[in-house]
Amino acid sequence: MHNKNNTIVFNMGSLHGHMLEHPQYNLNTFVSIILSFKADVIFTEVRSEFPGAIEGSIDGGIEQSIIYAIAEHQEIEVVAIDWFNDEHIQKSKEESERASSDLEMKKRIEPLFSLYVDKFKSTSFKELNDDEVQNLVRSIYDGYDQLGYKQSRIRNENICANFKLKIKEYEGKRVLVIFGLDHKYFLDDCAKKLSLSIVDVEDMVVDNHKIDPEIVKLSLRNILESKSTLEERLRNDYYEKSYADRLSTKIKSFDKWYEAVAKL
What letter does residue 113 receive in the DSSP assignment? Predict the structure, then answer.
């Protein structure tokens, strides 16, 4: 594809906590791919108004502790481009409750979702990030949208807007974008509209190897700080109750991540 400014982008789909147990796409794979891309900058799934490893790990995926650790070790800039707010969270919850009794939703989406889950559980990094799986994800979310469930699209559109705003600052750079796997197709579409060079997953080198102990050390530090910060905030009623209830279930996850990262 024509690339007017030589900016190179790879949209990398993460499996979040599933990487702790996935048979093929595990934490070693995740870290190895980030390192092999040799990014100048990483755009990550952390809200732009609350950047950093601690806020990112509390608000979103705990892999942010690793992403920011790699960036610190490799001296890579990290840019937070995620988007959601209280209204979006509430409306997403309402949509989820409505979907549970929506027969048309079950008829149309569940067969596609079942196919996706089968692939999600057992296939490789490259297969999960390839066009076949991403087109399946697209079909699922297009179905949601057509049935009146709009919040996923609204979030993706705002993420894309943040991407478009920030990418202007990195002309000619290698940009690694790391979001949950379900966002990849939308981010690929977003980048294509800007005529950027998008790296195909088939061109990525997946070569698991021993991770530098310093990256492990920095990741563990971030995980511990994130957990202790969240615990303190919950004790001090820092969050409104509904959000606090949601985050309180996450405390044990930090321990699982710490144990898994320590083995890298």
Answer: H
Domain containing 46: what range? 8-85+152-262
pLDDT tens by residue, 154-199: 999 999 999 999 999 999 999 999 999 999 999 999 999 999 999 9
Tell me, yes or no, whether 229 lies in a domain.
yes
- Predicted pLDDT at 2: 42
40 phi, psi to nearest 5 deg = -85, -30
Indicate whether 221 belongs to any domain.
yes
* Extended strands (E) in 15-125: 41-47, 77-82
pTM score of the predicted model: 0.95
Q: Which residues contact 178 (CB under 8 A, 6 or more apart)?
A: 12, 14, 34, 42, 43, 44, 45, 63, 67
Cα distance between residue 153 and residue 143, in whole Å: 11
**Number of domains forming the structure of the chain:** 1
